[in-house]
Amino acid sequence: MSYNLQKKKLGRRLLVGGAICLVTCGVFSSCTDGYDLDEKNNPNLGSSIYNYLQDEGNFTNYLKLIDDLGETEMLSHTGSKTIFAANDEAFEKFFKNNTWGVNSYSDLSNSKKKLLLYSSIIDNPLQLQNLSSVQGPLDGYAMRRTTSSGIYDSVLVVSTADPQIPDNKYWATIKQTQDKIVLMKDGSSSSPMLHFVQKFLDQKLFTNEDVDFLYNSPVGTRQTGDAYVNDAKISNGNVSCQNGFIHEVDKVIVPLDNMAEIIRTNGSTTQFSQLMERFAVPYWDKNVTDEYNRIYGTSYDSVYQKRYFSKARDNGGRSLQEDQHGNAASAVLKYDPGWNSYYPDAQSDRNPVMEDMGVILAPSDSAMNDWWNNGGGTVIKDYYGSWDKVPDKVIATMLNNSMLISFTSSVPSKFGDVINDASLPMGITTSDVDKVILGCNGAVYLTNKVFTPATYSSVVFPALINETMNIIYNAVMDETNKFYAYLNSMDATYSFFIPTNNGLLTYVDPVSLGQTTTHLWKFHYDPTVKEVARVYADVFEYNQTSDGTWVIGDSVSRIKTSATATAMNTQLCNRLADIIDNSTVIGDVEDGGTYYQTKGRSTVRVDGSIGVEGKMSVSGGWQLETNQPLTISRIYDMSGKTTGIGNGKSYIVDTAPVMTARRSVADILSENPDFSDFLQVLKDAGALSTSVATKYVSGGWSSVSPIGNLIYIPTQTGEGVNYLFNNYHYTVYCPTNEAMRLAYEAGLPDTTAIRLAEESGDEDSLYHVRQVLLNFVKYHIQDRSIYIDKNSEGGNFETDKSDPSSGRFYKVGVEVDGSNLTVTDKMGTAHKVDKNKMYNVMAREYWLNSATASKATTIDNSSFAVLHAVNEPLLYSKNQFIYQKVEIADEEEESAESKLRVFRR
Predict the structure, then answer these.
(1) What is the fold, at CATH topology level, of the domain defined by 665-885?
(2) Closest by Cα among 600, 478, 586 to 531
(3) H runs (alpha helix) in 101-257
(4) How far is the first Cα of the chain from the last one, in angstroms, to the nearest whole number?
């Protein structure tokens, strides 16, 4: 560059520099970084971008692109552009090695020229440090930006026999009826540009080694301050011109493919790509077609976009779960790998496309073959025989496990936080990755192994591969409750009792138990609608005849998910969650016991020939009440005995799901005359939600649904209702009538004492009498359900009764073996459970979502209890029945007055 030209540029520095600052600040609202430009670049402020490239003398190919595409005038005058220009040496290397098959500039078509030029231009003037800026302004957040390239710059007219047209049922009609089609890889956006600058790397905690990994460079290659754009390194940045900035790069900037295209075309991931292409569908849009015809002067009926069946992310994004004929996808991918602008869930109101993208772990063909024949895929191979026979939902499970949501969370320094489909560490290492290919919507890690989804080794697997269990599989995979993360965990052992679709035709709705009519739900599965709406239920009246038989009555309603909903219907989700919770045992039910607690805190009983299909049975509380144990028709051993990876066994039941107890504690006592006195104490103490006078509860019963829950009222004036059971599991030691006689003799107030307190009009006396009764009840309720079973463990357990002086709960000691249970109270008296009267009886109490049982629609929570009979009362203090007399106005009641005592606190 001549000395005179430099002098002219220096003379115009102040005017032009101020103009650039104003333009830049207009984009980001401030100039926090300033413009401390390199001294050697400052003289260029008087020159336009075009003139600078001319003066340098080694950008002839790049200038040809500008000239041939009619952009000379724009880049020669004042504007606001940032260009990433490759010099002639970089172009020479490009012509010697590229995927386009061009060997010289003359081989470039007009469309390819557009791709090279416009993909290297950003329509704002940005210094390197501002490339990472986002709205705010905030530095260090951006890693992608849109370029000047348009979505119509690279539309192809291709033969329908071309390999890029998927060989699946969705494209079959097009391939059969048309020879050529206009195909867009993504009709929503062009390929964004990637840029990694220091501020972004610092903000996202990337190391230099992370960048070396992404660019397949030896460790130590990147130095602090180095900046990269797409797959090129910036060799000379921040060249300031009157109409923008030039950042010289060491490679020709070519628009990056999306992840789907990278996997399809790189040559080493053919098998993985074929599986992914199952989910590719043609998508026609009239506006896109009309615009293409306008631009190119054509008259095509349809311009097709290639899209993939995929879920919507929580905060929006692109989703496709039906083709354009309304046919629902049999399965969907975690996200659309062909969407150029894919982004994870937005965490702010900024532009999420700029801040993150995805990652796909794409195994090589050799890795896929080894996995299929010798690794984690053998379970699929053994079941289906060939890939062609594997259903889409089984394949989607493997693909989705390989599709990582966030690129910024999936670089080597953060590999320990990358999780699988069980939300557990994936275990990926740099040695698992042979090569990285950067795409416009994510990075493809070409791996030498397949990361097997936990589902293939978990108790969920039978429901995945069997169409007869797709209702429960749909519920397990539903995003509301996320049971898949729990049941796929390899950190525990599970026994999962899976009801078939047929079994789910007989589900007694717990919510209806407190209503006038009991309801039976029949769950159904409709594969023709989108995934979230496939499960629905028909509701019927369910009536018990005089001989105890249950009979299905009239149809009541149909409960289904709206066609436009993004989440399963709340009632369906609620009941299916209740079924799964109470069908899952954490542990091995073949270890010699009989009673096992479920994830939902209920208890199931296993009987028969344990571990033998057709001869083993399981019962929940409902099955025990109705004497209808469920036969285990098939057992899947997913314990990993052969593969080394697994988490338990799946037990298939065909006639009904495991259902919990229908009866509450009060229901059970009311049905057995041996406990009539204890039931009366519950009533007199105000411990039944159906029997307490409203005046003792502030505001009435607005906060509870009265279906027999055990409660207590803390004060006479009313501080709301409290519960003796609190979303947990309990043991209730039920005193027989003989035990209650002993309690009365010891001083426990009886019904006569309650009546006298009521008639006295002294509410304080009445409250204290009730409190004595309530304390008696509380001490008979123990935390944790302990069954008489040889696998049960005794110990010291808290009761519901607390010490008023310390606030600590009084305890009881429990000794249990396979035949008997003995509970020792605080007074040191041992009480053996009377198995002839009652033992191991299951109860459940519910809290619903409405104060009025008839209006309730969902279960909010519940508690479970096991009831045992004791022939003596449990006592915690020799003073617990100390009273003082109350003055009674009627002297004729003198003889009865001695029975009325008030607890002295």
Answers:
(1) FAS1 domain (2.30.180)
(2) 478
(3) 110-118, 172-177, 198-203, 208-214
(4) 101
